[in-house]
Amino acid sequence: MISYILRRTFAAVILLLVVTAVTFAIFFLLPRMAGQTADQLAQQYIGKSPTKADIAAVKQNLGLDEPLYAQYWHFIKGIVAGATYDLGPTTAHCDAPCFGYSFKNHVAVWPQLTSRLPVTISLAAGAAVMWLVSGVVIGVISALKPRSFFDRAFMGVALAGVSLPMFFTGNLALLLFTYQWPIFGRTYVPFTENPAQWANTLFPAWCSLALLYSAIYARLTRSGMLETMNEDFIRTARAKGLRERRVVARHGLRAALTPIITVFGMDLGLLLGGAVITETVFSLPGIGQYAVQGITDNDLPPILGVTLLAAFFVVIANLLVDLLYAAADPRVRLS
Amino acid sequence: MSETKKTDADVTAAPDEREILLKVEGLQKHFPIRKGVLQRQVGAVKAVDGIDFEVRKGETLGVVGESGCGKSTMGRVITRLQEPTGGSIHFEGQDITRLNAAGMRPLRRDIQMIFQDPYGSLNPRHTIGGIVSAPFRLQDVEPEGGVKKEVQRLLELVGLSPEHFNRYPHEFSGGQRQRIGIARALALKPKLVVADEPVSALDVSIQAQVVNLMDDLQEELGLTYVIIAHDLSVVRHVSDRIAVMYLGKIVELADRTALYEAPMHPYTKALMSAVPVPDPKRRGAKSERILLRGDVPSPISPPSGCRFHTRCWKATEICRTTEPQLIELRPGQRVACHHPENFEDQAPQDTVLLSVAKEAASLVAEEVLAESAATSAAVAAEVEGSQEAEPSETSAEKPAAEATADAEATSAKTGPGARTAPATGVQEAKDDGQESTDE
Amino acid sequence: MTELSKTGAALGEPAPGNAPDAFLAVRDLKVHFPTDDGLVKSVDGLSFQVEKGKTLCIVGESGSGKSVTSLAIMGLHRLGAQGKHVQMSGEIWLDGKELVSADPDEVRRLRGREMAMIFQDPLSAMHPYYTIGNQIVEAYRVHNDVSKKVARKRAIEMLDRVGIPEPNKRVDGYPHEFSGGMRQRAMIAMALVNNPELLIADEPTTALDVTVQAQILDLIRDLQKEFGSAVVLITHDLGVVAEIADDVLVMYGGRCVERGSVDDVFERPQHPYTWGLLGSMPRIDRETSERLIPVKGQPPSLINVPSGCAFHPRCPYADIPKGDVTRTVRPELQQVGGGHFSACHLSPEDRTRIWTEEIAPKL
Description:
The complex is a heterotrimer.
Chain A: H1 2-33, H2 38-46, H3 52-62, H4 68-81, E1 83-87, E2 90-94, H5 109-144, H6 149-163, H7 166-180, H8 195-229, H9 232-239, H10 244-272, H11 276-281, H12 287-296, H13 300-328
Antiparallel strand pairs in A: 1-2
Chain B: H1 2-11, E1 20-35, E2 40-56, E3 60-64, H2 71-78, E4 86-91, E5 94-95, H3 101-108, E6 111-114, H4 128-139, H5 147-157, H6 174-186, E7 192-196, H7 204-221, E8 224-228, H8 232-238, E9 241-246, E10 249-255, H9 256-261, H10 266-274, H11 317-321, E11 327-330, E12 333-335, H12 355-361, H13 366-387, H14 392-395, H15 397-401, H16 405-418, H17 426-438
Chain C: E1 24-35, E2 38-50, E3 55-59, H1 66-74, E4 87-94, E5 97-98, H2 104-110, E6 115-118, H3 122-125, H4 132-143, H5 148-161, H6 167-170, H7 180-192, E7 198-202, H8 210-227, E8 230-235, H9 238-244, E9 247-252, E10 255-261, H10 262-267, H11 272-280, H12 325-328, E11 334-337, E12 340-342, H13 348-359
Parallel strand pairs in C: 3-8, 3-9, 6-7, 7-8
Antiparallel strand pairs in C: 1-2, 1-4, 4-5, 9-10, 10-12, 11-12
Helix pairs in contact in C: 4-5, 4-7, 5-7, 7-8
């Protein structure tokens, strides 16, 4: 077990290194290949009308004239040990997980990520609870009465939910419930300041996101449940004389839900890396929005930071899912 | 099968003089188990662990054993569907153990396999014609009169209608699918057909159809079969010779009649006694039954010495320490056992039963123990008698043969050996004496 | 016995609707499943009875309706996806109670307490996520208002009784940690935890090796002796039947074609299908240089059961009775001896002659 976790953690570190290398290559190598010089990159960092000397100084400080592998090494070293930038008169020290500074507004990337993370977590966690509960409940009811009116109706709605794009449902929700009938708040309030207000603002975003996911989960649960309820062990449970409710809850659901844990963990991990469209539609100052900003500004350090964070969440989610699965299913041996 | 054997025996040479088609020596297949951070190999599932046998042209070799004994792995290794990890396989004198895919290609024509699951082994998206003609395409063979004609002939050969050419597998029942599988295996006129549980997924009445079909085809096409099965009744019916496997080893390899009439390995005997006979009158004769204790041990760490010693009612110290070799005790009957049934004890000096053996013996009916002691002793006497006549030997058997119950089982076992065993057997020999005076 | 009615519906029992004397009595049971392809007549008019302490073996091939019969007795046929619209008629009497017309919840309360079932594949029949002990405890506590501790003690006691070594430890093991034989023992322990008076075993040894099969059959026999329960054992293996049955019922196409004591059915079988089964089986106790005698053709479809005698397309003797009778008239069960019934158009003389002259010598 411990050996397994060690091995997985080791693999995760390697994977993250590869992810950073690829991202680094995409954002630093590609511009060079497209003809951008170190000067031009340095210029982005300074802003309008820089002097030659400024450019040279920045270039040297950021190591932009160094070979790429050296730059990559500095980047990794910054994350692990922090980095010190010599900004002419002063030096700026950037603490351990140092993802560098934004080229655009010279703000350190890591504090940005940490301050935005609660927003994304709020969005993802709230939506996750909603879609998990609704998806599973609908899926189970549909599976227990297959081909019934309820089943057909919900599966129809689910199909629509899967097909409708986020920017449609999101904007619709925003239009109806925030502008037409302003039931919900418009600006994000942290949970720690005012929980009610926090939930109030996030609610339309949760619903839109949950609609999409719960549709998927309802279908997953339904098919898993249908399959499980035809298993031999369900017949055995009934042969013991158990009440049908207990057969479904204790024997059917337990087995049907385990594979859903896997999907759920992955989805949650992905969302934590930034729900790009949802955050944009609802103007939530989360990780996704930060990524969008970075991309529009061609601001490399934020993009790298977000990518790495997202990869980190996915890898962690993956590991947790595997551990959870092993805990849920005694047949799974972690080795 | 049986017919071929008979005619061969009558008309031409005895089966033993027939040409060897397949020769397997010291064959091993170990599946590694890896563990730890570095995934080092910490052990291996010894599915097949050193087996020797040969298959002669035109005969049927049956391979039986319980699940996990390695018989299916053996089948896949001798057809080179899996790589052996040790030993050698010779087909028609050619070493095929290490041949690569290209080297095996021409041999794929000569060696074919029939699988257990008639549902899983046919591609549901291909027509019957496509499935049966696949071997021709793969081997670039153009049969006389064209592929379609040949496939239709094959379908007829296995008792299907040539009109089935364009149908799909799902339109057929289990028995018919197995016929399709046989037609495919026979397409290239193979010399050796390895069938892994060919009838065990079929209903009884259909099983008989397929068994008869395989029988007819062997006669008609001069096929050689290796039939792997867990059903000892089927194996008895189809095989000329039979290999009994236990935990990756062959424990007994003998002609059909010898094996079923006078099995020598205790495991063979137990296995055969466990098969229910469709004759209610024999139910009273429950005494023939040998119940084995517990389960088959793990092939990851098989027991030392004789692998069967943990469940054998005859096991002694030597069984725990020394692995018995598969040796020919009687013409055509090879056995790996220190204390064989129906034969002279191979380790008569070793007479003290292991404690596990005493427990095991308590599950074995007294009659069986007595009878086995009597027959082994009789054989021993016969053998010794032929060398130097010693008449007292046979008469001394009687009391031992009538011994009863657990402790007595020990004496029954040691009875014949005790006379020749000076030190170790004394205690038991005394018991023996008391038993006989009690009578 | 000769004065008894010779029709299939009332085989020497009180009239329909009245409680029979037998412990378990099934009368004219029909279980039909409507499907898109047509009505599947899995069981189509089946009658039999079993006394306490006796074992009835139901023999048949796949699709003969033997498993559906067992599920119907347990009231399990209508649960699950395909059982929603099942049509069922007839009577099932268990210890004086009629189950077909009974309230489903009443039948549920009998399940696991008065009647219990063991299944073919103990690996898939046990829940993979719960320990063996947990599952036995659950079975015990459904019908007994006891604490978990008491139930656990009972579970250990049962595991010990069915011959599982170190039951205190194994009780906390999961099904996948048991070997096939041990799993089936645990399954039996679970079925017997409430001392049921009727035990239904659906191919209990088919998935097991022969040496393990011998152990399990021995165990079932011993437990039956100890608890005096009635056993209905479903199998396709005539060897198992000969080993354990008191009475035998041979099913073909959803109906009973022959029924009688185990000696009757093996010594004096009266139906060509039974002959076919006996002739198809290779036997371990004999050197048969002769070919096996298979039954030609394929088992019937339960949607389009052949007219007349369902077995006539596969029967080598279908042409012996005069006229079209085998193709047009469905044969009813006829008494052919004390407690021995057969549904065949062949005259008793023909049957005796064919069996003694043609079939028996070849077996």
